[in-house]
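This section describes the prediction task in plain terms. A model, or a person checking by hand, is given the sequence of a single protein chain and must write out its three-dimensional structure as a string of tokens. No templates, partner chains or ligands are provided. The sample shown here is typical of the held-out split.
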Amino acid sequence: MTGDGPVTLRAPAKLTWSLRVVGVRPDGYHLLDAEFVTLDLADDVVVTPGGTGITVDGPFAPGVPTDGSNLVARALALTGRAAAVHLVKRIPNGGGLGGGSADAAAVLRWAGVDDPARAVALGADVAFCVRGGRARVRGIGEVLDPLPPEARTVTLVVPPFGVSTPAVYRAWDDLGGPSADGGNDLESAAIAVEPRLAAWRDRIGEVAGVAPILAGSGSTWFVPGERDNALDTLRSEGAAVVVARTAH
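The expected answer:
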């Protein structure tokens, strides 16, 4: 799917519906047993072959790197392609929704790379984002077992801060590898890294009337169903509130 002119690619977010950390490899990579689903919330990735540089705009552009640390730059290097890339960021940066991974996966697909074993070299989420849909995800992210699609609606609450995924996994190690009752083994580690998450969890639960689930390593919390009216008050407290649906 390459050519001479600009092409606009869709880069859908992924939602971690459940996550168990089941081990740690000798090289320090964590082994997962998780369920991921693709959402209809998506970035646009505009690729101009032969160009150079990364530019960013959109509601969640602040904080997105435009240098070689961006996964898009690493995806281009992996495929040996040269291109200028413009990102329209609608997926929160540092929100645990795989925004950077989704952008990199879009570039890999554009370059004709859909091998999870290659994609996972860029990050645990990238392999799933290349394939999308709904899957059981194991290993370090490269073992994908497709699951039947299910129509689901969720309301995402994105606090006004992000959380570093590597820091959360380090904290999980430091805490002795805790498990969780709520479906996400990283929750206590994420709160250790960013204590404000606990206050947001409690506030969302108070307003929504149901305990929220942490999306991946955070900072996004989600609740099942369309609850943006109930959660609208959180916008005035600095959060973004987004209703999203599974995409296939």
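For orientation: Strands lie at 7-24, 30-49, 54-57, 83-88, 134-139, 143-146, 153-158, 213-214, 221-224, 240-245.
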